[in-house]
Amino acid sequence: LIGPPGAGKSMMAKRLPTILPDMSREEIIECTEIHSVSGLTSRERPIVSQRPFRSPHHTVSAAGLSGGGTVPKPGEISLAHNGVLFLDEMPEFRSDVLEVLRQPLEDGEVTVSRVSGTYTFPSRFMLVCAMNPCKCGWYGHPSGRCKCSEKDVRRYHSRISGPLLDRIDIIVEVPALEYEELRRKEPAESSADIKKRVNAARDIQRKRYGESSTMCNAHAGSRELREFCALGEESESLMKGAFDS
C-alpha cells in the first residue's frame, strides 16, 4: 500500500483479519503450538482461535523477525503463521531485516541455525506492507508540498530490493482523502458480509482439493496445478502475453 500520511493505509491493514476466512482446526492447533512455545498463551487464553495479526516496529532485528535466541524461539514471521504480517513504513526497516522475508515467502517456513542445532518453524503468512511515496510522504500530492527530487524518490524506493518486490503480488496506490470523502455517511459493506463471501470461496477450494493437505489455491503445488489448473487455448494465449510483457 503506497500513499501519503493519513490516507488510511494502516487502518486498512489492521482491518484485514476481520475479513479473512475462519481458521480450520488444524490451523488453530498450529498457531496455538507456535504461540505456546513463545510463551504467549495463558490460562485465560490457552488457544489461538483468531487469525494472528503481527505488526513489528521498524527497529526490529533480523532475529526478532525470523526467530532466534540461545534456544531458538519463533520470530514475528512465525507468530504471524496463518495470519497477517504487517510492516508499516516498510523502507524504514533495515535491508538485512527485510531480506529475512525472502525464504519464508517462498517456502512457508523459516530455518534458524544455532550451535545447539537447526530449528524450522512454520511461517505461511499474508505479508502486507505500507509506505509513503517518498521520504517526506507527499510525492504527487496536489498541494505540491513535496520537495523531493526524482532521484530522492528512486533512492527511497530502492531500499526495497528487487527480489523481495518480486514476491509481492499486488501493489496498490492509496490516494489522499478529500475532506468531503471523510464526511460521507453512506453505509459501506460490512466486514461480516465480506467475510461470508471469503468463507464461501474458501469452502469451494477445500472441496476442490478434497482429502489433500492443500487447503487453498495459494498452497497448491505443481501436482495440484497440473490437475486443477489446466489451461485452455485462450488462457494459454493470455498467459503467454503476460509472460512476454
From TrEMBL:
One of its GO terms (molecular function) is ATP binding. Residues 189-244 form the Mg chelatase-related protein C-terminal domain. Transmembrane segments: none annotated. It holds the Pfam family Mg_chelatase_C. InterPro entries: CHLI-like, Mg_chelat-rel_C, Mg_chelatse_chII-like_cat_dom, P-loop_NTPase. Residues 1-181 form the Magnesium chelatase ChlI-like catalytic domain. Residues 52-71 are annotated as: Disordered. This is Mg chelatase-like protein. It comes from gut metagenome.
